Amino acid sequence: MMAALLRCERRRDALLPLLSLLLVALVLFMGRLEPLFHAAFPQLETPVYARESFWRLTLDHLVLVLVSSLISVSVGVSAGLFVTRRTGREFEPLVSALAAIGQTFPPAAVLAIVVPLAGFGFVPTIVALTLYGLLPVVQNTITGLRTVPPDTLEAARGTGMSARQILWRVELPLAMRVIIAGVRVSVIINIGTATIGSTVGAQSLGTPIIAGLVGDNIAYVIQGAVLVGLLAIVSDLSFERLERRYRIGGEATD
Amino acid sequence: MNHDEHDGPRRIANRVLATLLVASLAGAVLLPFAAMAPNRLVSGESVSLLTALRPWQTLGLAALAGALALACLVRPLGERRGARLTLVAAPLALLLTLYGLGDYAQRALTDASPAARVSQGAAFWVLVFCTSLMIVDAFQRLGSSLWLRSGYGLLLVAAVAALFATGTFNALSILREYFNIEDAFVDQFVTHLTLVGLALAPTLAIGLPLGLLAHRRPATRGVLFSVLNVFQTIPSIALFALLVAPLSALGDAVPWLGALGVAGIGAAPAILALILYSLLPIVRNTQAGFAGVDPATREAARGMGMTRQQILWRVEVPLALPVILSGLRIVTVQAIGLTVVAALIGAGGLGAFIFQGLGQYAIDLVLLGAVPTIALAVIADFLMQILVAVSRPAGAR
């Protein structure tokens, strides 16, 4: 059984460079595919989205996701650390509950409420993505740090390590895989929500999708959807690889 | 909780409550409580809590804040009795805030133009948020059972419903928006639930056997989970949109499918996308549920002379049920949220108001779509949590 899973993992690893290459190629050379789209949708006058270049849309999308994720991760991990230390321990149950309840909120609904209140556009969209992206990071940081066995902490303390040393050399390395899993969820959700950001005035790969849906141009829809789908899959596969590096015992168990 | 490790005498028994109380007081004083606008499309003039509320309401809130401050302290109440006091004072503060806002809207609009609107401000949201968290924190400290919490929640929901029913909020902008579109709202609400239901039924019909397959044939797991994970990864709007083209082609090419409603825009791609999204948690949890059945239990059932079918239905399924239902819980909440996005491909649902409102810069319309969706997701989550608890075998509860 384990062998089958590993074989599948290896097959997915082989996919990652291929899909990344495909993504980059499509981002740069979507325009060259015009004859193809023209043949598929002869009724459309402009079969390739041209109001903005695809690399610009991809860049905007990436900036939305990267900026919000960076803030989410730094704030989320800090919050997770605070509530698992002695001074903040009292806040842990409430913060955990908040992260759990918050994640039942639909991300699209959160985006729709936060952005108009903060005034449409790029920055408010980042605010909404950051807020939502915090939740899985906080939750997994707490879970990851909580699963470090007390015996291990006791042993570390016994060897005379300071609290700071224990955090950096014992707790964080052991919790890292779970924390990265949280970041993975956060980033994948944000890639999806950033797509909807085009309805609240933030340009992203969702822009051609919405333009296509509004203007009845299926080709635009396909172009935006394929790019953003590939972007999400490539990110997910990269995170999967990163997570595996922190599996207890490292890659050696493969 | 154990706080004995703190040094020196402590005055505050509940620092969480203290923090929330300070946050609500700061929010109530510094932020606008309501906004008054000449019409629905412009943002209004801010009104502070002190100007908006009647003196008795302000005094009431101050008294409740005093009670909550008392509930924070080590003496005279301590942590547990403080938590019980919080469970009385916090909901009263919440209801008084709600009532105060509705009452202010009614008074403010009596001699204003008919187009004028009163809406809730940031201080209102801070108070609602903080008082709700106070209640959650108090229950966590008391370690109350799910049943007690459910009963309490039901009572609170009933109290808020009573405020709605007596017309307290009727003058508020969001409710006036609601009265404008009442019929459409009910339609879209029903559509929303229907889409979720139409997606979940086939998901279970496909996902449960697939989960069983993954359990019995481990070799299928790698491919199955990878493929289903891809669907979970693709952004919702992209998956919805990608299904538009093939389904419209299918509906055109096969007339009887078209007659059944299979078309590029509308419910068909939405339901299909929701199914694809929902499969992974159902399949994964079904497999995990079956994997969690103790082999000794299975052996004992076989020893009693049960057939394979009997073991499946009388032993394995009941034991795996809580885990399977946890999967259904994830999927239900997720589907309620994803259906919002389905409005973009013309499937309807509450998302229709959200995107219509965003298009018109009408924030009340956006809230009218978003707030019920969030409430629906939270309520569904809570109900499913109860279902999971009930499905646990008596010994494991």
Question: Can you give a write-up of this model?
Answer:
The complex is a heterodimer of chains A (254) and B (397). With 254 residues, chain A is mainly alpha-helical. Chain A has a single domain (2-253), classed as MetI-like fold (Orthogonal Bundle), CATH 1.10.3720. Chain A is built from ten helices and no strands. Chain A has helices spanning 2-29, 34-40, 54-84, 92-102, 107-118, 122-146, 150-158, 163-196, 206-215, 218-245. Chain A starts with a helix and ends in a 9-residue tail after the last helix. Mean pLDDT of chain A is 88; it is low at 250-254. Chain B is mainly α and 397 residues long. Chain B folds into two domains: 15-175, no CATH class; 182-396, MetI-like (MetI-like fold), CATH 1.10.3720. A three-stranded antiparallel β-sheet of chain B has the order 2-1-3. Chain B has helices spanning 15-30, 49-52, 55-72, 78-109, 122-142, 146-165, 173-180, 182-216, 221-233, 236-253, 255-259, 267-291, 295-303, 308-342, 351-360, 363-391; strands at 34-37, 45-47, 117-120. Chain B is 75% helix and 3% strand. Residues 1-6 of chain B have low confidence and may be disordered. Chain B has 16 helices and three strands. At the A-B interface, α1, α4, α5, α8 and α9 of A face α1, α5, α9, α10 and α14 of B.
